Amino acid sequence: MIHATWKELTLNPRFPLGTSKGVIQERTVWYLIAWDPSRPRLRGIGEAALFPGHSAEFPADVRTKLIELCRDTSNWEQRLTGDLVQVPCVRFAVEQCLKDLAASGSKVLFPSEFTLGRAGIPINGLVWMGDKVTMRQRIKAQIDGGSRCVKMKIGAIGIEDELELLADVRKEFNASELTLRVDANGAFTHGTAMPVLERLAELEVESIEQPVAAGRYEIMAELCAGTPLPIALDEDLIGQNTRLAKKELLEHVRPQLIVIKPSLVGGWASAQEWIDLAQERNIGWWITSALESSIGLNAIAQWTATLKPGIPQGLGTGSVYTDNIPSPLTVQAGELRYRPEVPWELDRLM
Which CATH code for domain 3-102? Predict the structure, then answer.
């Protein structure tokens, strides 16, 4: 029987991470660590990255499940389809931990051209909220760094200023030269959303994530039916933990796209279920990280690479921390790359 323990870390962003739901000043994540007593130095590690304000579970739920899992390691596989379904980030941590343990703790979970360093994953450059001057500088930095798809958070500093920033970008780069995405995190209402969608469409914005708050299904369905640009569901996916619930959401709202965060929807198996259901209904998708540390981001990225995505994914968040776990992951010219020659530095977790 394997042995296990868990560890909690708080990570510090390089700058306050602004969203329409508030500013993130620090980030707490948890690690599930398992090993075979006959090979104690080879440890599988999985990350539980609960996202306050978005995740359905709470920190106390995470700690309770991790204590239970470490007390009894005999039934982890069975629990993946049992009680852990209701604690998605812990479920994902178990998936990662078991996969990594089977890979002798190498962190090479899905061997591919990506893990060999021969191929990258196209990603969008993410522009966090700030004041107008700061956001303008961040947009420029993303473009200068090689991003040809830029996603901007909107809904906090005032839509007129945000639209002006997007318009300035469009004056310099047309839609064939630079893809623009926006993420509203539910910032708008039934009355304000459609006018914003129309103005974004005029700027040839590719898509908008979650224009109204999660759970406003009737409003979202109405917007998706009449929108002039594709709408992507994001937070609305969280808490839909059964196949039936996922199917009913997609069939009722009929979005053009869905944005899948494995840490928030319950890991690889659940994320794949979302993809399968979306494709059956001709709904597009992409995969996004949720401010995990390098452990969780690596798990998401390696799996995403096996899907061979044709459009930019949302996996460029690893550099936001001053104290992230050093890893082979790096961002280069609009791609997430894995450098196998760079070692993992895991002393903080051992």
Answer: 3.30.390.10
